[in-house]
Amino acid sequence: MAASIEDVAKLAGVSIATVSRSLRGLPDVAATTRDKVLAAARELDYVASPFAARLASGRSSTVGIVVPFVHRWFFAEVLGAVEAVLSQAGYDLLLHNLGSSEGRERFFTVLPVRKRVDAVIIVSLALTEDEVEALNTLELPIGMLGAAHPGFFSVRIDDVTAAKQAVNHLLSLGHTRIALIGGDTDDPMRFTPPHHRLTGYEQALRAADLTVDHSLERLGYFTVEGGEAAMLELLGLPERPTAVFAESDEMAYGAMRAIRRAGLRVPEDIGVIGFDDHSTAALLDLTTIRQPVAEQGVRIAAALLASLHDPIEPTDLVLDTELVIRGSTVKAASVYAES
Asked: Which domains does the chain have, with CATH numbers?
């Protein structure tokens, strides 16, 4: 039968609390007492329960992460990066996938992370004041990835500026009839990228003295199938666009498939630019805006862990994006161009 902490305390002649403090290396234990406890633990081959140690420390060694849609590529990348940082530090990850507006309302009403985590990461959600107030009742460090709010740690990119960079690339190539395939800005989930990237798209057009034509804006719902359906609608217009900015690479893939199935060429007939630099973007020769997805996850997880060990003022970190030019907008830049 395995030895218990009570057995160690009895053999060492100390209290259970002293055994716990000694094994956790806390400073308020005399060196001679600690040595006696460690000797007793070795003699009894005692192994401390991690769960018990967490309870004794008042910490769960767990960080909660809240995502709107767990099945999408971006969120899977973020989760992988966050989990790697937490695991290396000896922390667990507790995932909450909202999935719908009902799931979101239930989460912020019930707050199932209460007393189960040491910190919380919210991914790509524009929070309401009621939601912020609910999170503040946890009295825990809160991190936001892809958005920001005063009093919370945040790591993000500038989606507006990045979208403008995408459209300006198309403008520099002589395109003036530029379509947008994006997410639903009326989605009750209040997922942030559709709002910010639409804003950047329209700002770039206005800065170039072009009229914003809302008939060129279509919903692709961040899926390949949605991008293809949106592109088919655009191809059916009396005057089709000469270029398309898709708010994600996956929607751009669908757009390119629709263009080619219609017997048209990319980029000669219609140029296409995406957003993310998905792992298959180079394979499909897609010009895109590269964002540091994994790095955002690493940075927000590291910031929260640091705050748990040494309370610090929340910071807002904005990471750079990069225009990656390939063959879907500039034929000569194709990764498959003959050398």
From this structure: 5-57 (1.10.260.40), 62-156+293-319 (3.40.50.2300), 159-291+323-333 (3.40.50.2300)
